[in-house]
Every structure is written in structure tokens, then in C-alpha cells.
């Protein structure tokens, strides 16, 4: 049974929208985070799993097609799951077309895991939730590390500002939790908007954006008890 969560928290995708939203939308976003939907009604977990599997098993396109076939031939218990499978098939087709433009040849991907740690800022837990760790070796043989976050929404594509805010937080996550693997390479920190066919990397002007995030989290923490 889902009820209001006690401590302020927000997903990184919703925080990206919050930072560019109107006051009315900001209020709705906080309410949706405090009273989240049942996880079974999330629409794209199978697509995220399939893309992660594809990336971690050598980027063989046949893996994406196998997942599409599995979803297309499965029998589901209700209309919601049937529609979710169709959306995931569509998402995988969008990603299949986008992938060659991401420049990930020679990059090794590994799963982050089911419950990656959150970022803490101004009393708010930010659930960043990247899907894969990306690693490569530079010309001097040194390991370079990054992460990829998949974004799925047919009707709310990321704009440049939201995408860069999310990428900034993704880099902060990597610096906080993945530094033992090697130096963080910003060019390996990717936010991929699957349906829009776009990727976002962390901007160079990170300090100002992190200050914006700090103020937004302060606002979320202050409003949380009133939602």
C-alpha cells in the first residue's frame, strides 16, 4: 500500500522539469512525488531493461530485436500491460535508430543495479537512477568513467535547460559514487531522451546550475509538509 512518504524526495527527471516549470506545475510535481503511483503502473521498465541488456552485452542490435519480439508475442493479463508492451516496443525502435549517433563504440557498459544511492541536497533525496556505468580507456591506458540515464516520455520531451540540469546531477552522482573506478569523464555522462532522439551532456557552467538545484531543493523541502 502506497502512502505519503515522510521525507522529501524527488526523481531526477521530475527535478529537471521542476527547475523550468511554472509555479502551478511545481506544486503538482511535489504532490506527485509525495503521493507516487503504484510501481506496477510505470510504463517503460521493460524498455529500460532491454536497452541496458543491449548496452551491457556488446551493443548487438539483435538483442534489441529479441526484446521487441518477446514483447510483441507475449500475452498480457490486461489492457494496460498490453499497451505498455506496445509503448516499450516503440521506445526500443526509437533507441535503435538513435544509438549509432551516440558514439559509444569501444565503450564498455555495466549495470548500475536496482537501487543506486541517492544524492542528498538541502534535505531532499534526489533519486538519480542511471541505468549503466560507461567506461573506456584513454590513449595513456587510464580508465575513464561515466554514466547513462534513459529518459522516456512521448509527450514531455526534455528541453535544453532540463536536459542540462539532469546531466549536471548525473555527473554529481558519478563523482560521488563512482570515483573509485577512475576519473569521471563528462563526455561519458549522458542523458538520453529516447523518444525525442536527443542526448544531453553536462554543461561546463555547472556551479550556477548546482546553485539552482540547491534553491529548488530548499523550496521542495519547505513545501513538502503542506502537500
UniProtKB/TrEMBL annotation:
Protein name listed in UniProt: Uncharacterized protein
Organism: Archangium gephyra
Lineage: Bacteria, Pseudomonadati, Myxococcota, Myxococcia, Myxococcales
Amino acid at each position: 500500500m502506497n502512502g505519503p512518504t515522510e521525507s522529501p524526495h524527488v526523481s531526477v527527471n521530475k527535478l529537471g522539469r521542476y527547475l523550468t516549470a511554472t509555479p502551478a506545475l511545481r506544486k503538482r510535481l511535489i504532490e506527485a512525488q509525495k503521493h507516487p503511483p503504484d510501481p506496477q503502473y510505470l510504463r517503460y521498465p521493460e524498455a529500460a531493461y532491454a536497452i541496458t541488456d543491449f548496452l551491457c552485452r556488446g551493443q548487438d542490435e539483435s538483442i534489441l530485436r529479441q526484446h521487441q519480439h518477446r514483447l510483441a508475442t507475449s500475452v498480457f493479463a490486461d489492457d494496460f500491460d498490453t499497451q505498455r508492451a506496445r509503448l516499450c516496443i516503440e521506445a526500443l525502435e526509437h533507441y535503435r535508430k538513435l544509438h549509432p549517433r551516440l558514439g559509444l563504440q569501444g565503450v564498455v557498459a555495466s549495470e548500475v543495479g536496482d537501487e543506486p544511492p541517492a544524492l542528498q541536497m538541502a534535505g531532499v533525496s534526489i533519486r538519480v537512477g542511471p541505468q549503466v556505468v560507461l567506461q573506456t580507456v584513454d590513449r595513456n591506458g587510464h580508465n575513464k568513467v561515466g554514466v547513462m540515464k534513459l529518459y522516456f516520455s512521448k509527450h514531455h520531451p526534455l528541453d535544453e535547460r532540463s536536459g542540462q540540469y539532469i546531466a549536471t546531477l548525473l555527473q554529481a552522482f558519478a563523482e560521488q559514487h563512482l570515483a573509485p573506478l577512475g576519473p569521471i569523464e563528462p563526455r561519458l555522462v549522458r542523458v538520453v531522451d529516447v523518444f525525442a532522439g536527443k542526448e544531453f551532456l553536462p554543461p561546463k557552467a555547472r556551479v550556477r546550475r548546482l546553485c539552482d538545484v540547491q534553491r529548488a531543493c530548499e523550496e521542495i523541502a519547505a513545501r513538502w509538509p503542506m502537500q
